[in-house]
Amino acid sequence: MTSNRPYLLRALYDWICDNHLTPYLLVDATGDDLNIPHEFVEDGKIVLNISPSAVRDLDLSNDYINFKARFSGKSMNVYFPNESVQAIYAKENGRGMIFPEEDEEITAGDDSVSNTELEKPVEKKEEKKKKDRSHLKVIK
């Protein structure tokens, strides 16, 4: 199964822009195969404004994020893999999503997660329903 990160990034980007806010990305700058302005990296991370007014030719593909932007007056083609994105959020209110360091995918038949682990929330819900009904009395 493919990663859901690129789909979530696109959806949250649209949501932030539709609410007239400024989408920011927190990117891990320590990985390979990325082209970013290294002079703005702090503690191995960089925050990038990807609003339509700040970038040109934004491409939020399934594998890479790619756009053109100006940094200190110098035009640059920025690109990095989706896996390096640690968060997307609105500058104005901080609302958005933090992504886990490594995507852990659960697939059908995966031995690392048993069916009973996946069913536990359902069982608890059914138990709660039974407890809630214990106070009911039938009146004829």
- The count of β-strands is 7
CATH architecture of the domain at 5-98: Roll
**Structural class assignment:** alpha+beta
Detail the poorly predicted runs: 105-131
Description:
- Helix content is 24%, strand content 30%.
- The strands form 2 sheets. A 4-stranded antiparallel beta sheet has the order 2-1-6-7. It has a 3-stranded antiparallel beta sheet with strand order 3-4-5, with helices on one face.
- The longest helix has 19 residues, at 115-133.
- 13% of the residues are buried.
- It has a domain at 5-98: SspB-like (SH3 type barrels).
- The chain is of the alpha+beta class and 140 residues long.
- It has helices spanning 5-18, 115-133, and strands at 23-28, 45-49, 55-60, 64-71, 74-81, 85-90, 96-98.
- It is built from 2 helices and 7 strands, in the order αβββββββα.
- A hairpin with a 2-residue loop joins strand 4 (64-71) and strand 5.
Structure described in brief:
The protein is an alpha+beta fold and 140 residues long.
Question: Mind sketching the topology for me?
Answer:
Blueprint: H1 5-18, E1 23-28, E2 45-49, E3 55-60, E4 64-71, E5 74-81, E6 85-90, E7 96-98, H2 115-133
Antiparallel strand pairs: 1-2, 1-6, 3-4, 4-5, 6-7
